[in-house]
Design brief:
about 170 residues; two-stranded antiparallel ribbon; 6 strands; about 35% helix
């Protein structure tokens, strides 16, 4: 049985991109359309770099035109928990004290994911200091469960869980 693109594994998505069954651009646009449609009710993703992700998708497709594969996750659209340092993005851990903290470096894990070929396009909501059973903080508000908006998707990685469950991303590190 063929699953919709947004519920396929990251390795399945990468394989389709690498084998030129889908372009990195089209895959990214699929996920961005889902974010636009579903994220307003979920508040799972709280920061996005759409322009940067589109450029990376173009670069991923151009690399394949030259026979270059970036890694096993070539072109896969990915989001990541807000607490990870991603250059140019807020990293607050949901704490108002760090509201204006924008990091200028990538965490080692982010560097390694990018080396594997991912297209990191957004960050997912977290509870205050990553330490609650639900996902709420004063900066970004509440993340809702995609299957029942009156419920929580859980705590520390709730934004990541909601984004994956709703098919807003091909991969997430929470």
């Amino acid at each position: 049985m063929n699953q919709p693109l947004h519920y396929q594994s990251a390795t399945e998505i990468a394989s389709q991109i690498i084998r030129r069954k889908r372009s990195a651009w089209d895959v990214l646009e699929h996920f961005l359309a889902r974010v636009e449609k579903y994220n307003p009710a979920l508040n799972a993703l709280i920061w996005m770099d759409t322009a940067g992700a589109r450029q990376t998708a173009d670069d991923a497709d151009a690399a394949l035109d030259k026979g270059q594969v970036w890694g096993p996750l070539h072109g896969v659209p990915m989001t990541i928990k807000e607490s990870y340092e991603v250059a140019g993005s807020p990293t607050t851990w949901g704490s108002p004290e760090f509201r204006n903290n924008v990091t200028d470096t990538d965490a080692v894990s982010v560097q390694r994911l990018k080396k594997a070929g991912v297209n990191l396009f957004g960050k997912a909501n977290v509870p205050l200091m990553l330490a609650d059973w639900q996902t709420y903080n004063e900066i970004y508000g509440t993340t809702n469960n995609p299957w029942d908006l009156s419920r929580t998707p859980g705590g520390s990685s709730g934004g990541s869980a909601a984004a994956l469950a709703a098919g807003l991303t091909g991969l997430d590190a929470g």
